[in-house]
Design goal:
homodimer; about 300 residues; alpha/beta; Rossmann fold; seven-stranded parallel beta sheet; three-stranded antiparallel beta sheet; 13 helices; transferase (chains A, B); magnesium (chains A, B); CofD (chains A, B)
Chain lengths: ~300, ~300
């Protein structure tokens, strides 16, 4: 069994490669839910939906989120009713949020709803939300504590990052199956997702970090920082705000206490010795998933490297 | 002040005439909410929305409900998730239900939400839901007790009507302002809406019928039955099921205990003596609202007749 810890776009694209290299039924994705937020009273779980839409082949490739060729008629009308419209939710996408909200109000857990959606989209890998308990990633800034979506989408990452707070973390447990999956996996792969808010929120859950330290699985991470900058999203601002070096080395330091293999891009080959000095072996390869071939190549390289590391 | 008791399409069209004859600020509509139902966890209030959309000029004239030129992308996606789609909710229309559901969950009352929507659509008449408490009109049939929308929309009125039950009625009170409006009005007009399930639900609320019997207002009703058949909807099936004659006379009997003026179509002029024998004066006029002129004409005739009746 291969376990992938994933955030949104980077995680979903990495998973696309993995499920073409390993039978999907042998893959478990553990997905960040720290970005979840209510919009218009509906529960939106952006990273779960990005993973499902991407693997189902219906994602809007241009954005990396949402459903392809979607319309925005509901939101346009809600705007007429005075609602904010900074978080774009297409009409077909809203059906997912309406469905999820209905099921949650009917007493289903996020795990159950995620599994139902997975099945409805015809996917055979296992997808687990990181937790069935609410954890809300907030960014401490000079204008106050902002929900991650407000920081990133509404205010376009313009505020200085002074800290990250996972609200609700103390009361949260990993979702059923998460720790077992980490313990029983052959390999645990940390997707090239934001190490602070996508992977970081999963690692912050009670027991996750300890389980990764103790598991017999080979743990590999792919750096989302290439050539000193993230391929997408605000990982640089968040890492810098928390005093991390914005580099593959900085990412490796976030994971050093449990990491067996660090996967970095050829552009960053010079960082390999410094990363190896932290403990993990280093795999230098092409990590930029510019097309399907590149996704398959990266997944194959990472999995081969894990097999060799055993 | 003119008060209009209204259901959906017939009530909304009659109100269109009234607000062109009387300043809208002097009109209060009391609207049936017995047809309300949850769809996909969202609170849908069909008659309120029909009245608002119609008076705001955005209604889909072809159906009489919904917003003109709306799309059905959310519902199409919900259908893919296994949901029923027998009650058509357009995308822009769904924004209303999302907004209403959000407000109700935030603790607002149906009256408050109705008034907010009225204002958002730029309307200056007063619109009151009949009650802030849940009342759900059900039809007793050989296949069991069906919610009115299931009886009418899902099963297309195919079941024999054995009775009508307003579930929740015992615990329901008229919405704030309803009884006061009936007491203080110059005229109370019962729109040409279904006498059993649209007007009947309002009349069934504690105190409404008694207040109509006691009010100094002139109370007039427009028959929705013309030439022995309803212009729209299943009023004939419901009346027959409850043992009422399907005619303007049958409608007049439903209201006889408080009615001052019964308005019937020219086609039904021969019924005038029998109706007058019940008590009310009869106004014979053209009641079919085929265009805006006809709506204005009907409203003017009804109001003149009320003024004469004082």
């Amino acid at each position: 069994m291969i376990v992938v810890l994933a955030g949104g776009v980077g995680g979903a694209r990495f998973l696309q490669g993995v499920v073409q290299v390993v039978p999907p039924a042998e893959v478990t994705a553990i997905v960040n839910t720290g970005d979840d937020r209510q919009f218009y009273g509906l529960h939106v779980s952006p990273d779960i939906d990005i993973v499902i839409y991407t693997l189902a082949g219906v994602v809007d490739e241009r954005h990396g989120w949402g459903i392809r060729d979607d319309t925005y008629h509901v939101m346009q009308q809600l705007t007429r009713y005075g609602h904010e419209d900074w978080f774009l939710l297409g009409d077909r996408d809203l059906a997912t949020h309406i469905h999820r909200s209905l099921r949650l109000r009917q007493g289903r857990t996020p795990s159950e709803v995620t599994d139902e959606l997975r099945r409805l989209f015809g996917l055979t890998l296992r997808i687990l939300p990181m937790s069935d308990d609410p954890v809300a990633t907030h960014i401490q800034t000079p204008v106050g504590l902002l929900h991650f979506q407000e920081y990133m989408v509404k205010r376009r990452c313009m505020d200085e990052v002074q800290g990250v707070v996972f609200v609700g973390l103390e009361q949260a447990r990993p979702a059923p199956g998460v720790l077992e999956a980490l313990r029983q996996a052959e390999a645990v792969l940390l997707a090239p997702s934001n190490p602070i808010v996508s992977i970081g929120s999963i690692l912050a859950l009670p027991g996750v970090r300890e389980t990764l330290q103790e598991t017999s699985a080979t743990v590999a991470a792919i750096s989302p920082i290439v050539g000193g900058a993230p391929l997408k999203g605000p990982a640089d601002k968040l890492m810098r705000g928390l005093g991390c070096e914005v580099s593959a080395l900085g990412v490796a330091r976030c994971y050093a206490d449990f990491l067996d293999v660090m996967v970095i891009d050829q552009q960053d080959a010079a960082l390999a010795p410094a990363i190896e000095a932290l403990g993990p072996r280093v795999l230098v390869t092409d990590t930029i998933m510019r097309d399907n071939e590149a996704k398959i190549h990266l997944a194959r390289e990472v999995l081969h490297s894990c097999a060799r590391a055993v």
